[in-house]
Amino acid sequence: MSLKKLTLPHFEIATSSIYLDAESDPQMKKYMFAYKIQIKNLGTESAQLVSRHWIITDAFGFTEEVKGPGVVGLQPKITPDQTFQYESACPLSTSTGTMRGFYSFLSHTGEPFNVEIPEFYLVAPHSVH
Q1: Distance (Å, rounded) from C-alpha 101 to C-alpha 55?
Q2: Considering the domain boundaries, does residue 25 fall inside one?
Q3: Domain of residue 15, residue span
Q4: Which is nearest to 91 in space by CA: 46, 43, 56?
Q5: For the chain, how many structural domains are there in total?
Q6: What pLDDT, in 10s, does the model give residues 104-114?
Q7: 6 within domain boundaries
Q8: Closest Cα to residue 44, out of 3, 13, 8, 77?
Q9: Pick from 91, 98, 104, 16: nearest CA to 55
Q10: Which one, of 92, 87, 88, lies nearest residue 24 by Cα?
Q11: Is 2 part of any domain?
């Protein structure tokens, strides 16, 4: 009996964030951040992003989990060497926080796998001295 080795696609996730001053209201404890995600397929096979799972933590350690299909209404198929990018936003009740999580994908053969989204920071100006 021989075992078939499954080679899953390999992805690189890059993140950036910015504070949205015009959409924030510190007096009301509303801090709004935009973030950009770039997902690059470094593998040799296509894969489809089917869902996301975010873990959002504010400055007090309060954690909220956000799960849902795809990203920004899409479930993109990402081919080898292709980079898919999108922008979204996140409200916080504190001027700093973090986001991390994972994307769930389906390989070209239908195998499910997850790709970690490395933790990144949400920081309003003048929050850190």
Answers
A1: 5
A2: yes
A3: 11-123
A4: 56
A5: 1
A6: 999 999 999 99
A7: no
A8: 8
A9: 98
A10: 92
A11: no
pLDDT per residue over 16-41, tens digit each? 999 999 999 999 999 999 999 999 99
pTM to 2 decimal places: 0.89
- Non-local CB neighbours of 116 within 8 Å, separated by 6+ positions: 13, 100, 101, 102
SS3 labels along the chain: CCCCCCCCCCEEEEEEEEECHHHCEHHHCEEEEEEEEEEEECCCCCEEEEEEEEEEEECCCCEEEEEEECECCECCEECCCCEEEEEEEEEECCCEEEEEEEEEEEECCCCEEEEEEEEEEEECCCCCC
What span, in angstroms and rounded, lies between the C-alpha atoms of 2 and 119? 39
- CATH number for the domain spanning 30: value is 2.60.40.1470
